[in-house]
Amino acid sequence: MINPAPPDDLAGFSVPGSGRGILEVFRYRYLLRLLVRKGTQTRYHGSALGWGWSYVKPAAQFVIFYVVMGLFLGLHHGIENFPIYLFSGIIVVNLFSEAFSNATKSIINNKALVKKIYLPRELFPVADVFIAFVHFLPQLAILLVVLLVVGWVPTLVQISGVVLAILIILTFALGLGLFFGALNVSFRDAQNLVEIILLFATWTAPVLYPFTVVRDALPTWLFELYMLNPLTVAVELFHSAFWFPTTAENMERPAHLWLLAGIAAIVVAAVMVVGQFVFRKLEGRFAQDL
């Protein structure tokens, strides 16, 4: 009779399908690069304009908002250089919307891989967030070209604000994407809920209007809560870096913006922790539910 192997001989093994969460993604950097490359190369595959759509779509969105909100409704009054104000906010919301939406659908879209082999499931939402960032770069390039034409000279503080805003948005979108992406595997209603959330995204940040409109219309406590929204903070960091330097000095900016940015960073870190926790709890059912 053969005696079973002692428990110590199993120390080098791990339970199939388990991992260390999002930290394990860094061990699969090559595969992550492949997923990002595949996502960016196939996005406009077969289209006549190809990557030109990355410029056409935000430009069309800007024209619609500028004509309807700026000219027809007169919201451009009191906002100097309204086109720069508008576009610098639009691209932030576009980055959040694409990253959040793609991360939510990432497990469903890669169900063939999820069901057949073990990979850190977090690879898919992380890759989709990176893909959204790559598609964001052409929009940022358009804004930078316009700013340089009007004489914008960047400073270290402004660049730091832009980098911080991008990190806040990407982390926020990834945390929410992990949460809703895990729920979306078992309950496809989650995807519909995300679409509703994104419908409000443009309106819950000072993109089409100045923050002073909200301050004057809401009670102080509700306005302060509005200003703690990470999307609001990211938009205002972009405004502070790109729009405010092109205006007169008497234009009002949010008070304690860097303090708000620090609080927003803590909020998105908490969202990331919650999203990772829920994702880890539910990922054992992914293959079964798919």
UniProtKB/TrEMBL annotation:
<feature type="transmembrane region" description="Helical">
    <location>
        <begin position="257"/>
        <end position="279"/>
    </location>
</feature>
<protein>
    <recommendedName>
        <fullName>Transport permease protein</fullName>
    </recommendedName>
</protein>
<feature type="transmembrane region" description="Helical">
    <location>
        <begin position="225"/>
        <end position="245"/>
    </location>
</feature>
<dbReference type="GO" id="GO:0140359">
    <property type="term" value="F:ABC-type transporter activity"/>
</dbReference>
<keyword id="KW-1133">Transmembrane helix</keyword>
<keyword id="KW-0472">Membrane</keyword>
<dbReference type="GO" id="GO:0015920">
    <property type="term" value="P:lipopolysaccharide transport"/>
</dbReference>
<dbReference type="Pfam" id="PF01061">
    <property type="entry name" value="ABC2_membrane"/>
</dbReference>
<keyword id="KW-0812">Transmembrane</keyword>
<dbReference type="GO" id="GO:0005886">
    <property type="term" value="C:plasma membrane"/>
</dbReference>
<feature type="transmembrane region" description="Helical">
    <location>
        <begin position="159"/>
        <end position="181"/>
    </location>
</feature>
<feature type="transmembrane region" description="Helical">
    <location>
        <begin position="129"/>
        <end position="153"/>
    </location>
</feature>
<keyword id="KW-0997">Cell inner membrane</keyword>
<keyword id="KW-0813">Transport</keyword>
<dbReference type="InterPro" id="IPR047817">
    <property type="entry name" value="ABC2_TM_bact-type"/>
</dbReference>
<feature type="transmembrane region" description="Helical">
    <location>
        <begin position="85"/>
        <end position="108"/>
    </location>
</feature>
<feature type="transmembrane region" description="Helical">
    <location>
        <begin position="59"/>
        <end position="79"/>
    </location>
</feature>
<dbReference type="InterPro" id="IPR013525">
    <property type="entry name" value="ABC2_TM"/>
</dbReference>
<feature type="domain" description="ABC transmembrane type-2">
    <location>
        <begin position="49"/>
        <end position="282"/>
    </location>
</feature>
<feature type="transmembrane region" description="Helical">
    <location>
        <begin position="193"/>
        <end position="213"/>
    </location>
</feature>
<keyword id="KW-1003">Cell membrane</keyword>
<comment type="similarity">
    <text>Belongs to the ABC-2 integral membrane protein family.</text>
</comment>
